[in-house]
Please model this.
Amino acid sequence: MMSTQYDDLMQRLLQGETRAAARLITLTENDINAAETIIHSVYKHTGNAYILGITGAPGSGKSTFISTLIQKLLKEDRKIGVICVDPSSPLTGGALLGDRIRMKDMFSSDNVFIRSMANRGQLGGLSRATEDVIKILDAYGCDIIIVETVGVGQSEVDIFRSAHTVLVLLVPGLGDDIQTIKAGIMEITDIFVVNKMDLPGADRKVAELIQMLELNMNYKYKSHEINKNVLTTEEWTPEIIQTNSITGQNFEELIEKIEKHHRFIQNQGIVSNYLRNRIKQETLQILKYKLIKKTENMFEDNSLIEKLIAQVIEKTMDPYEMANSIIRLLKFPVKDRDF
Amino acid sequence: METNRKIKVLVTKPGLDGHDRGAKVVARGLRDAGFEVIYTGLHQTPKDIVNTIVQEDPDAVLLSILSGAHNALCPKIMELLKEHNIDDVLVAVGGIIPEEDKEYLKSFGLSGFYGPGTEIKTIVDFVKNNLKR
Model:
């Protein structure tokens, strides 16, 4: 294997040294070239962790929920990793990462590794490096990795391609039944958690979800008549559960549901389908990032681009034609190692 | 161009001290200066703080203390950092630190000592100019 400046850190990571994991994460976050080299070494040591995605609106109680969930999941010989993503300021690039405040009780445990990340302007609820950080924590020896997304609106669905099981947190009293039939996060959920179940309206929220899921089943049944591949025994019907993160009420049942979904995706080929899809999506994401960076670089101080812009101003060219001209100009040198 | 380095700062409240208005103002100010700021909340033990430093790998740690327990808590934190072989993190103190205690704390490698009335810009510049990596 090619030796790199990260060999020492890599070796310490594989021995389970926390500080090495933390430093590799920093490098991965700050520099995409470092990330590429690090993931090249880490990748073959991944695939052991179970990845749990937690998403939901700001203030739905994600951090407190995770804190309680960790307490219930933690066992003597089990390592848990937590990645908390919070938004970066679009104005200054700064960020205030406050998820740890709710996870205080976990700080002293050597079996829990919590890392706060800013999304650094990336849409979709995660940051560019989140996927890489999951792999580093996996190689570090985490059995379960919990990923908390940015407090999401309706279309931050990136967690879907990173996690084995996606939990969406809802709270009573936010939005009516029309919210449940909108597209977006409601479609990617494996388990709906109606958190803060002590608040009025929790039962109604559950009723709305049941109604939505029945409509989904109806729809899938109809697609089945058109395409026999759509509805199979492999279809997962999302589970619904109410929780109270302060008292810990219903968390045992919640964990049963998570385990049920775990068993479900382990069955007959679903895992390999899932994995193939995940690799496809992740590679697309990397490609997008690299292509956009490359294109953006072209726009910096480029006399040819300036000429094209002038033509668009003069209306001898339109923006679509300009884009096509640029595509013809793009060349992609790749490192030998890549093939 | 490809690197996207951000200065990461941990703002934390060691010990039994419930006054975090100042820490919050500083955290907010650093955020506005473009830093990534982690705020842990109140009542952190030295072990909690050092565990957080190990996991989050910040460039700087700002300890906010108004309780008077700085001479007990701060050296303990520095000791634990040493045990973890962490020597590339700037550790600074803010809050109420009497003049006569500053030399003692400095001997453990602590710096800063910004009290009430300090302008945010002073703290931002201090962090930027004293990073250890």
Remarks:
- The interface with chain B takes residues 18-19, 22-23, 25-26, 29-33, 88-89, 92-98, 100-101, 104, 107-108, 110, 113-116, 118, 120, 293, 297 of chain A (CB under 8 Å).
